[in-house]
Specification:
28% of the residues lie in helices and 29% in strands. With 258 residues, it is of the alpha+beta class. A hairpin with a 7-residue loop joins strand 6 and strand 7.
């Protein structure tokens, strides 16, 4: 359920963070809440947040959530008849279906949709780091070393190098994650941190091949300043159809043999 937060409450949370000498990123890691959410809350860019988000922030800042939830706006929401709340939730759910579900939904309700095929996900460019590249892009993949012919259940050692260019004062939080087609909900976290300036990074990760022979694919997502992907098919998971989204990605194919 969305909880409306007024400017007085958001400023109270901001003062509590500063009192504990925490940066927004430190609070994000402590509360397990995305950095973007904290920024939206403190800068009044949104007026509604999930109850679980507010509880996590209150716990991390040693605040009493029960006092926070006694604000007039929350009281007004809680005074709504249960029947009305259920109707509102149902309408939102239907809107999500009509807006975001592809046409295949009517033909196969058990199909798990590949959201990146329906949303504007840009594929990461693979090219050398050059002056020309810096003029128009923020990051590119330089190479992905990955064995493309492997045996069933074989462990693959992978290496990825990427270059980035961020202007002075721009320090986005970066999530680089890999997902396999055969284990679509298992995230392989390659990198998480803040980058700035001009540089390149190399990271290694491992993937265990499937037990089924055939052509399979791996997707590497490069997301900035909000939160990592949580599925090979896109973010959020297919059960959360009201707000699907995705990030820049690169897809790599491998052939698995006996």
């Amino acid at each position: 359920m969305g909880i409306r937060v007024d400017s007085k409450t958001s400023q109270g949370l901001l003062k509590a963070r500063l009192k504990k000498n925490l940066t927004q990123l430190e609070l994000s890691n402590l509360a397990k809440v995305s950095l973007r959410t904290i920024q939206d809350l403190e800068n009044n860019r949104k007026d509604s947040f999930s109850e679980s988000t507010l509880i996590c922030l209150c716990r991390s800042l040693d605040l009493d959530y029960n006092k926070l939830s006694k604000s007039e706006e929350i009281k007004n929401w809680q005074k709504l008849p249960k029947q009305s709340i259920l109707i509102i939730i149902f309408i939102i759910f239907l809107n999500g279906l009509f807006l975001f579900y592809p046409k295949e939904f009517s033909r196969n309700k058990n199909l798990r949709f590949d959201w990146i095929k329906y949303l504007k996900a840009k594929e990461l460019i693979v090219e050398p780091y050059t002056i020309k590249w810096r003029e128009s892009n923020e990051q590119v993949i330089n190479y992905i070393n990955l064995k493309q012919l492997a045996k069933v259940n074989e462990t693959l050692n992978c290496e990825i190098k990427w270059s980035y260019h961020y202007e002075k004062g721009s320090t986005p939080e970066i999530f680089l994650s890999a997902f396999s087609e055969w284990e679509p909900d298992k995230e392989i976290r390659i990198f998480h941190g803040i980058l700035s300036g001009d540089s390149s990074l190399v990271r290694n990760f491992k993937i265990i091949c499937p037990s089924k022979v055939g052509i399979h694919s791996i997707r590497i997502f490069y997301s900035t300043s909000f939160e990592p992907m949580n599925s090979y098919y896109g973010h959020p998971a297919p059960g959360q159809v009201s707000s699907p989204a995705t990030a820049h990605y690169r897809e790599v194919g491998i052939e698995v043999v006996k």
